[in-house]
Structure formats: C-alpha cells, structure tokens
Amino acid sequence: MKQISTNARFFVFGLMAMLAMVGAHAKTFKWTSASDIPTWDIHSQNNALANGIHASVYESLVYYNSRTFKAEPMLATAWAEVSPTQLRITLRSGVKFHDGSAFTADDAVFSLQRAMAPTSNFTPYIQGFDRIVKVDGNTIDIFTKGPNPVLLNQLTELRMMSKTWAEKNNSVAPKDIKTKDENFAHRNTNGTGPFMLKEWVQDQKMVLVRNPNWWGKADTNVSEVVYTPVKATATRMAALLSGEVDFVLDPSPQDLPRLRQDGALKVVDGVENRTIFFGMDQHRDELVGSNVKGKNPLKDVRVRMALYQSIDTNAISRVTLRGLGQPTGALVAPQVAGWSDSVHRRHPYDAAAAQKLLADAGYGEGFEVDFACPNNRYINDEAICQAVAAMWARIGVKAKLRTQPLSTYFPMIQRYEASIYMLGWGVPTFDALYSLQSLVRTVGPGGDGNYNVGRYSNPKMDQIVDRAKTETDPLIRKRLLTEALELQNTDVAHIPLHNQIIPWAMKKNIEVVHRADNRLDMRLVKVN
Questions:
Q1: What is the bridge-based pairing of β-strands 62-64 and 71-73?
Q2: Are 198 and 7 in contact (CB under 8 A)?
Q3: What CA–CA distance (Å, rounded) separates 251 from 145?
Q4: Which of 132, 246, 314, 446 has a 20 to 30 A CA-CA distance from 176?
Q5: Strand 247-248 and strand 27-33: pairing?
Q6: Long-range contacts of residues 202-209, Cβ cutoff 8 Å, at least 24 apart
Q7: How would residue 131 be classed by pLDDT, with cut points 50, 70 and 90?
Q8: Which of 268-272, 321-325, 460-464 has the highest mean pLDDT?
Q9: Which of the four pLDDT bands, split at 50, 70 and 90, describes residue 25?
Q10: Contact indicator for 161, 475 with CB cutoff of 8 Å
Q11: How far apart are CA 470 and CA 461, in angstroms?
C-alpha cells in the first residue's frame, strides 16, 4: 500500500517553495541497507534504523551533535533544574509541523505521555518519569520519581508528535508491535523536521523531501532522499558499483578491500556503540521444541556457561566478520559508562571445559534447542548464527536455527517465542543503565526488562539497577553499573559476542558524518 493521504498533501503544499529554495543546486541522495524500518509510528518500536530515519522527519527536544555527541538544543532552547526531581524546559518558538500547525507545550506534554503508554516501546527513555506538566504555552516541567542523572540523554530519543493530528487520526496510542493492527501514524507522518515523508512502500521504497518551512538551517544540498531496502548483500554492492545508489550503510565485509581500492568510491569506518549477544529463555519450565521434557536446561548456569565457552569469538571476528567485530565479554561497548577492562574480559574459549559443564549439569549427551536470529539487521548476522550452531554441535547441542527479517523477528522475540536469540543493543544514553534496565532487570512496569525476553531474574541485580536509577554521585554510580555488568557475566544472563565496527561505503562525491550510533544525519549529507 503506497503512502498517500496526509504526506502527499504536505508534499504538494511545500513543493513550490522547496523548488524555489534549492533551485539548480537540488540533489537527490540515494542510499540502501539490508532492511526497512518497521513503522513510522515514533513510539511504537525502539529500532535503531528506524530511530535514525525518524529523526529526519520528527524531532526531539534535544539531540546529540553528530560530531561531538553532546546533547544540544533542538525543539527545546533551554532547560534548568528547578529541584533534583523537576526539570523546566523552554520550547522553541515559531516551529511548525509539516501540516502548518504550530508546535506548542501541549504537543510536548502529549508526546512524552504517549511515550509512556502501555503500547510504547520507548519506556527505557522515560525511566524515572513521574509526570509532565504544562507551565505555559512555551514551557513544560518534567517531574521525576527521584534524581535522574541521564534525563537529558533520554530526551534525545523522544520525538515530538502533534496532539491535534494524533487525536484527529486515531493515533493517540502508539501502534502495538506485538500485533498486526495499524494506526494512522504507522504509515503517515506529521513532524517538524528538515525532511517530509513523500512516499513509503514498505520493504520497497521510501522517499523524503526537504521541508521548506523548517525552523533550522541544514548543512546539506540534498533536496530528496530515496531509501531502498535490499536484503541481498550482492545486490546492494552491485547497486553501489553501478552507480544506482550513492551510499550503502552495511557493505559486505568481504567486499571492503575491493571497495577501498576503487578510485570512484570510499569507505568510512567507525566503532559502533552496539554490542551483539545471545539471550536465553531462563523462565519456562520446559523449552518449546526441545527434546528435553519436564525441565529447562537454560535455567542451569553451567549450561549457559557451556554455550558461552564453546563459541570461538576470535574465529568469528576473523572469518565471518572479516575484522568488523571486537570480541567482548561485556554487555556494553567501551564508550558506555560502567564498562571496564575486567567486565570486557571474556571467559576463555574451551570446548572441552564446555563439554564437562554439560555433563556436570546432566546433559552429557547434549540436547536440542530452538535458535532464532535475524537475517538482515546486524553485520553478517545469519552467518554468525550458522557458525555458532556448528560450534555448539561439537559439544552435543543441536541448535535448530531459524532466521527471520527484522520486521517479523523483533515482534516475535518480544512475544517470548524464542529459546535462544540474537540481539544487538546500542546505548543511546551512553550510560549502562539503559542496557541493564532493558536487558537484565526483572520484567516489570516502567520499562523494566522491556527487552529481557529471556526473562532472566535476580533480586540482587534488581536492587543494583534500581539504585543506579537515582544515584547522582559519579563515582558511586559507575561502581554500581560496573557491579551489575559483572553480575551479568557471573550469571551468564546473556552471552556477549562482539562490539560492531561499522564501515560505510559510498561514492567519492558523498560527504557524511560517521556517528557511533550508526545513523545518518541527513542535515549534514552533501552530494558534490
């Protein structure tokens, strides 16, 4: 179904002004990666690719500077702490949504409350929020349940939606990603950002055009952005080599040497703020699809450690990733507060020790287990899972691998339908609490355990994480975060694999700013 209705009207509304603005210097930027975004509802699914694309159309109160990664004003111009639990935010005047209506305090209050809704997947970003209050037409107050040392960082991912538009179009609540039900905001947009959505045919094509009435000043000569998701790696690379696209977000590791030597192309590298790991169902009393009946092997830490120690991450980094992965024992990347060398140190690869652990746990003959992975989300994700399945087979664990595209994979694991699953977790707040609360805190209200889909639970972990939520002393806070990361390693709550190293491949005439969160800032893209 093509994207028409409101987006088409906004496009026509601004077309003549846009043409006058860009004139003869108008440029089209064409790019691709393996998957499409799952929705245009900005509070529905916390997906890194979607969050980056959404940021071109919908804006947050503050946003990270792409070069410094410091939070800077966006739809907010100032903020001040009234008390340790009250932050006053002054909103930017004169901002218009794409339909021409004014951005006001009512929209800001509505948007933050919408992110707190039961169907929102953005609850990690509203951790600690108590209530949002309108002070006047240009000011809001955020009240928190206790001191929140990362509140400003959280606001970078909470984008603003028009209250009137949402009410008019039956989109007051975010789309529930666990169902196939759609609201109007799933396929239609009305942001304040530098680009407007002109067309979206899911899994086929997306077209953005410049917003001629944007309040800011973009350092770009791009008037149109065309995004084409292409699952097949060879097809994406062929499109770049032939000139059909200008930029590939996820080039194949094996093609990088050739791309670096091509005089018409260039590769820009950077370490991503993302860790790839496996999660395990530690909740069910009997695993679905396993030949072990009446109990769950994954509840035994010896089994989890055996799975961990039978994975040769160095071989995966060298062969499968071609160097685009930094093996790690930590659940977060080095840029994140709470990381330490000791947390980063992996348990040794030792297949013999892994077999002994299985035998000690009563599974000397091995067992069968369901194993789910995405096939178009992370660098060589499917190939990594195939390699790991082969490594587990050597110790007698028969992992029945199944792979799915991003759009169906994430709702599936959030319905708790996978026994072992792959997940990659970036940390937009650059603070380990974001990962700890989402991944190892017992599942509960207020964002606790929202991606703890293995349903690991440890009261000691909960206590540490809950203390970190309100601790403002930097030294105490870092100690708490590190302690929680160490406990995750001891419990083998997850099996960390590697931190991704991200290369971007593009034509020589393309200028971009590489970000640690692997997103393109369209305000800074240039086609020379």
A1: antiparallel
A2: yes
A3: 44
A4: 132
A5: parallel
A6: 202/36, 202/407, 203/36, 203/229, 203/407, 204/36, 204/228, 204/229, 206/36, 206/37, 206/53, 208/56, 208/57, 208/522, 209/11, 209/14, 209/15, 209/18
A7: very high
A8: 460-464
A9: low
A10: no
A11: 15
Strand partners, 274: 426
Which pLDDT score is estimated for 124? Answer: 86
- pLDDT band per the 50, 70, 90 thresholds, residue 389: very high
pLDDT of residue 13: 42
Q: 3-state secondary structure string, 217-286?
A: CCCCCEEEEEEEECCCHHHHHHHHHHCCCCEECCCCHHHHHHHHHCCCEEEEEEEEEEEEEEEECCCCCC
Burial (CB count <10 Å: 0-12, 13-18, 19+), residue 106:
middle
Place of tokens 């699809």: 289
Strands (DSSP E) along 110-252, which ranges? 129-136, 139-144, 195-201, 205-210, 222-229, 247-248
pLDDT, position 254: 87
- Do 179 and 193 touch, CB atoms closer than 8 A? no
pLDDT in tens, 283-334: 999 999 899 999 999 999 999 999 999 999 999 999 999 888 999 999 999 9
pLDDT tens for each residue of 70-79: 899 999 999 9
**Domains of the chain, CATH where assigned:** 5-230+509-527 (3.40.190.10), 272-501 (3.10.105.10)
Cβ neighbors of 29 (< 8 A, separation 6 or more) are: 222, 224, 225, 226, 246, 247, 510, 522, 525, 527
